[in-house]
């Protein structure tokens, strides 16, 4: 039997504990159901508006030697260890392919419509307010891996960190806890011995190969008449040249 | 209510949980949408259920009329329907939460599954378990708020340590000990109750923050703190759960207790041996003969005499 309920005067009148509990439960449950109808039927659909990134990595796979220095630098500056599996830029090599299809650099393209941001249920993967770079707030990541599969490119530019159990991706070195970098530096670009990685502040022209650009024309590579040094269109100096 | 009715409640909860899990497994499949290949995350689409489940538990408690323990001939009513309902919704929920949560990886425990499809399935099962867990927890909380004596009988007394030493010393074969007059709950169980309450409270609060991050822009430090709290509380809950299942279900001497959590009843002989203090308390409530119902209002639908045996 329930304990007897008394009001402050001890007379036993007023709202009983059971009535209060039942009322609270009914009110709360009703509010949830009511809120559901309001949100579903009365409120307009949300619009996802994501600012464009203010920076883009450009790569020239014809210059890349597959040394993976960029991958090691990326993992070292972000995680404090040299681990190719933790790198946010991936260099894949096809031993059965021939030049120029034997090496591919898979960097994040900072898509104008980032499907990885759209897929994230907790806003962990978001566009940074200042730089627009698509990056992961690791504290908020719940590990659903939807971003990994949302990326339209293979391999996915959003990666699964198996050690810390959260998603991660190229953040253009906005947050590098293990590297005291100068303003505007990026680890992969700084360390690449072939200077096969560059940076642009305007979105490059989209191609099926991604931001694979000519970083050879106008460099000593031109003198050796390296295949493709005249630029993608066959005209000398037609490629984007950035230091 | 007869023992068959109590069994129905327990089995009903188990069946409902199994049905919900099967529904998730069969209906929530990966699909290709604007964001590429994805899967429906129930924490996103049905998150309102996480908020509604606690209120549903409180509402159900408001409509519940409890039955106090009583002696009925050669058996004792130990758990009424409300206790059975609260126990199995909370317990099944806890079990499923632990299994899915551990498989997904936390703290130093690696993720045991691979691929986003499996991760999605486990997250959705985790959601189903959350709803059951929250309903059971708040249903118990509501019932306890209506009768705080039930909470007090779960708390350790001043005899916690000596009774526990005597009880388990005897079980381990130390003949100098005698079975202490344990109450309805062993003193060791009452101490474990503290751990269960602490773990449940931390898990529920941190879980609410994690679900809120799906709908509001919760600051990163708050979500990070909630994640860590949730993970640590999982360890506490795992410790309690393993001990509870071992002592309450695996040990053969506990099988009468397990049966009572389905039928509601234990034999008087078992109660007199294991819970002598409890039986004495029941008998002291009335000066009627031993085979007649003890204290508390007896529901009018139920005959008070011992003949009402199913």
Description:
The complex is a heterodimer of chains A (243) and B (310). Chain A has 243 residues and is an alpha+beta fold. Chain A has helices at residues 17-42, 69-79, 115-119, 146-150, 187-191; strands spanning 56-59, 90-93, 103-106, 125-127, 134-136, 159-161, 166-168, 197-200. The longest helix of chain A has 26 residues, at 17-42. Residues 4-11 and 231-243 of chain A have low confidence and may be disordered. Chain B has helices at residues 3-27, 42-45, 47-62, 81-104, 116-146, 148-152, 160-171, 187-212, 220-250, 255-263, 268-274, 276-284; strands at residues 30-33, 36-39, 70-72, 75-77, 265-267. In chain B, a hairpin with a 2-residue loop joins β1 (30-33) and β2 (36-39). Chain B is elongated and about 70 Å long. The model of chain B is unreliable at 287-310 (pLDDT under 50). Chains A and B meet through α1, α3 and α4 of A and β2, α3, α5 and α9 of B.
**Total beta strand runs of chain B:** 5
Residues in β-strands, percent of chain A: 5-15%
Order of helices and strands of chain B: HEEHHEEHHHHHHHEHH
Distance between the termini of chain A: 82 Å
Strand content of chain B: 5-15%
Radius of gyration of chain A: 27 Å
- What's the pLDDT, averaged over the residues of chain B? 85
Number of helical elements of chain A = 5
Strand order of the largest sheet of chain B: 3-4-5
